[in-house]
Amino acid sequence: MSSVTEEGLYQPYDQFILFGDSITEGSSSQELGFAFHAALQDAYRRRLDVINRGFSGYSTAHAIKVFPKFFPRPETATVRFMTIFFGANDACLQGNVQHVPLEDYKRNLRTIIEHPATKAQNPKIIMLTPPPVNEYQLKDFDASKEQPHPSRTASHTKEYADAARQLASELGIPTADIWTAFMTAAGWQQGQPLTGSTELPNNDKLASLLTDGLHFTPAGYQIVYDEVMKTIRAHWPEQTPESLPMIYPGWTEAPK
Fold first, then answer.
1. 61 and 111 in contact (C-beta within 8 Å)?
2. pTM score, two decimals?
């Protein structure tokens, strides 16, 4: 095949897949003012395709079933990065339909990471811990869902964040620790009672990061973006947006 013909072949961008629940799905919303997906897409423009594969309401039990249905084969596209951001729904208290037991949660995350489709691509994976919740705000959220009992608690959610962090460490996968980043922003320190619990006064800072005690405000998504970019810079500095060349040259260098 001639070089002229080869140059004319379609060459797709490598992909950066965001895999998660409603928090990921909602990260594309321009109504927020700051959207994590949009910000990441802007950072990697002309370098990577950032693709939102967030599924509202999904737990890891759903995720392991849908994953092989959308994750591309190597001959279709190259996945360079993937974030895995589940646990907010798994951490529902037992008796809630979305609840996934802690050991099953860890097993499901491992299934995604070690899935043959993942291994075939060997992407750079970033584990995002589920975020903390604010029980004060969740009262209204649960009421709107006609939930008679609390759906989530601060302490139970922490167990899932700890589990995600632990599993990532066991598998040698970098973690963007969203739980700790939110709690630190709220002024919490290790060993203190959990911010977000109704056993303490409502924390205005934590409340400012969450719209309903679970989902994120623009300030919350800004923290997610910062943590993901910090993780990339720490583990793959050659993959930061400023380090990657544009897929096609700028207009001054482009052939006419």
1. no
2. 0.93
Query: What is the band of 254 on the pLDDT scale with cuts at 50, 70, 90?
Result: low
Strand boundaries in the chain, DSSP class E: 15-20, 49-54, 79-85, 124-128, 175-176
CATH for 239: 3.40.50.1110
| Residue that the structure tokens 């691509």 belong to | 121
Residue-wise pLDDT for 198-225, tens only, equals 999 999 999 999 999 999 999 999 999 9
Catalytic residue among 3, 22, 29, 59: 22
What letter represents residue 237's amino acid? P
Q: How far apart are CA 172 and CA 175, in angstroms?
A: 9
- Name the amino acid, one letter, at 244: L
Q: Name the maximum alpha-carbon separation found in the chain.
A: 71
2 is catalytic: no
Residue 253 within a domain: no
List the domain range (segments joined by +) for residue 89: 13-243
- Per-residue tokens: 91: 């951490």
